[in-house]
Design a protein that fits this description.
Strand content: under 5%
Low-confidence stretches: none
Order of helices and strands: HHHHHH
Radius of gyration: 17 Å
Mean pLDDT: 90
Structural class: mainly alpha
Shape: elongated
Number of strands: 0
């Protein structure tokens, strides 16, 4: 894959919903699995870059309040563009007052 094609895909692959349109545009040269792999790399990078913000006391308290007020984990995660599983862990840490290693 040429670097400019990769950059175009990387910049335009904002969510999993973008995969079908990019697949239509670049098929058969680029496969579905390739697009999923690029999206996964991008998502992992974003998670590494932003995890510390979501773990802060202010942010985790806000997420816990949203959850206790009845908002679903999936909608909170979508709102803040963060992994639902990692968000659940942060909320559990905050709610149960456990350390990261205790969970």
């Amino acid at each position: 894959m040429k670097p400019r094609v990769y950059r175009f895909i990387y910049e335009n692959l904002v969510s999993q919903d973008d995969i079908p349109s990019l697949l239509n545009r670049f098929s058969p040269d680029i496969t579905y699995n390739t697009l999923v792999s690029i999206y996964s790399q991008k998502y992992q990078s974003l998670t590494r870059q932003t995890a510390h913000r979501h773990r802060s006391e202010d942010a985790s308290s806000k997420y816990l309040q949203w959850y206790l007020n009845g908002e679903e984990l999936a909608s909170i995660a979508a709102k803040i563009n963060f992994s639902p599983c990692l968000l659940a862990r942060i909320i559990l840490e905050r709610f149960a007052r456990l350390s990261k290693s205790e969970i």
